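pipeline/complex-builder :: batch 7 item 3
reading input block
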Amino acid sequence: MTARPRAFIVVTGSELVRGDRRDLNGPFLAGELLRLGVEPARISIVGDREEELSEALAEALGAADLCVVSGGLGPTHDDRTVELVARAAGVALQLDEELHEQIGAVSRGFAARLGRPYVDFEAGVRKQATIPEGALSLGLAGTAPGLVLERGDTVVVVLPGPPAELQRLWGKARETEPVRRVLARAQPPELRRLRFFGTSESAVAKALAAAGGDGDGVEATICARDFEIHVDLVVEPGAEGRADELTRRLVAPLESHLFSRDERPIEELVLDLCRSRGLTLGTAESCTGGMVAERLTSVPDSSDAFVGAIVAYADDVKARELGVPPEVLERHGAVSAETAAAMAGGARARLGADLAVAVTGIAGPGGGSDEKPVGLVFLHAEGPEGSRSADFVFPGDRSSVRRRATVTALHLLRRLLQQTRDESA
Amino acid sequence: MTARPRAFIVVTGSELVRGDRRDLNGPFLAGELLRLGVEPARISIVGDREEELSEALAEALGAADLCVVSGGLGPTHDDRTVELVARAAGVALQLDEELHEQIGAVSRGFAARLGRPYVDFEAGVRKQATIPEGALSLGLAGTAPGLVLERGDTVVVVLPGPPAELQRLWGKARETEPVRRVLARAQPPELRRLRFFGTSESAVAKALAAAGGDGDGVEATICARDFEIHVDLVVEPGAEGRADELTRRLVAPLESHLFSRDERPIEELVLDLCRSRGLTLGTAESCTGGMVAERLTSVPDSSDAFVGAIVAYADDVKARELGVPPEVLERHGAVSAETAAAMAGGARARLGADLAVAVTGIAGPGGGSDEKPVGLVFLHAEGPEGSRSADFVFPGDRSSVRRRATVTALHLLRRLLQQTRDESA
């Protein structure tokens, strides 16, 4: 059905294939390619051994329209990407005089700063300036050049491993003539996203099937991410009407759970709602230990609306710093709806915030009982015009309970802000 | 040099190859295999298209001693892993009666809970109970069986995609006779880790080279992770003496930066130091917005030592809740050594904590000036026996500055705890 150009992504790095570090470049490049209308067919992660990298390159050169290689461009002997790409493409290596000068200049700077003689760097400089015949340089990342070369029907892009450098030189690679030729054959699909909260992946899958399912130029992926359910639609040119219809039918039974059709993270939605209403915001956290505040302050300029948080882990901090009455703690316990409500009220008063959300729960693995099991979390959001509360027994381990509680707290704030906005409108 | 069995890991999932979701199974399996003495040679991530998965399987079956496949075991038509594994291995598929019963029982339960007729599930049940001739079942994850089969010299392990299920059934796969036979040929290397803080990857690389470098049965990987520098040594049987010598020489010039030879994260080291000295701990955070507290409370039973945090984002919260004198804020600014010191003192007093660390800085992208640029962070840790402070201009974006400040705050606490411990010893 699709005649999109196919891309292979080859990522090299011993620490990646051994699981010591998680690869970020494969997912980044895959997302970029998909948006440009190129099908990412495979991500291969290999070590820096010659045979592994050579095999992966040989497969890609045979099968892909575009092969993007990440990593292995350093100055030392175990960085062999350029040499092996040349061999796989069947072209010779040669010293590029211009690159030799550029890399030499950068390395002289390094040598001076480190107080070491330039001669120590010379072999590395020659190695990094030695590139396959006919390859285009994309400019340097540190002392490593990014490269583009063609071999038969495959365009090969060679990029450095550090993600920031890879992303910068990928931008340059896109502008080169060989890559533009591949992209000219690609028809960028339209990408649409629907985000739901408070429903399950299987409920959304069921609704999608009942709505007619994907196909006919619309591909749908359902993905639970950070406890939200995201539906991504990849819409081929000409299938926009079919996508509209599918969206309408999918959303109808899930309307109350749909909260966004864009990419803004929930913390940004909450802050935008606060700003638009001129409200300030704070948090009172026990089991989440500051995670709600951390999410909110991850947004640049969050200080416009967010004023602070009190993480009250110990009970006497709940009493002293949030003003939770000792008799509430005694009668209902620290993990209770009453304590959550008192924490939210206390945070508003102490922090001088218009709005506050409180979270108290049992993240585990210890501390649970029959009556109050691990995963039990009480949430309470309070603003000038009302409040909302909720409680759950979240499944999963400590980290999972804490992350779910954090996301739920943010959505509780969103609902409170939307409710009061709707009512006051 | 190494005669370790080679493993290929094949991960299938459209959302993974498209970069919508990051694969966790590849790194998990790679780490497991490495520990068992099997060399993870490649991780291939492919979508659920027939040709992509078939190609990846064919390559693995030719080249690997062990091929572990993750994902694509669901009941629907686009979950094709089992069928394609059978085809790649050249064996027929057949209905396994015992599995048919097991999966049927689970599905009847689902049907009842969902209030749907069992007949809706029947095709899926037959599909999931249909496995390659000669394959061993590892038991079910949901309704999907994990499988082990042999083809020539390759043992193939088929596991479900959800990470928790994959990890559970991988444990079972390890106990099967075919996998045990591969593992019997593996010589598990000894893995050693050295962790440094406050030095750079290149400084450690230089020290490693000066110490004689790796080789001769010791492989060293240097990896910056969460702003610490980790050196992982993979030590082949018989090379222990060489590893001891290399370690000694590597550590000598970096002694003051070496802080751990084990895997415990820094937040756990800090909590352990607090517990061993009977001290309680709190934080006062501005630019980190609760991240230090979040890290500390990620550790189970952290409530033994951690009492709480005050996230003082707005200046009047710094004054009111942490008691930072308004004249300090006015004269030195919220981002200053003086404010950090006052915040730490305030947190000790307000939270009733023996020890507190304070962080205040400019995370960016806005808010910087010539005098106080983005990335400027002041830290102050104070305990019953003394204090330590530090300031930095951290590079990178908002997230990077915040994460660096968080890790640095934890290490400042560690140094304060070790200093006072050493002095009082």
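note: Chain A has a mean pLDDT of 92.
queue -> next item
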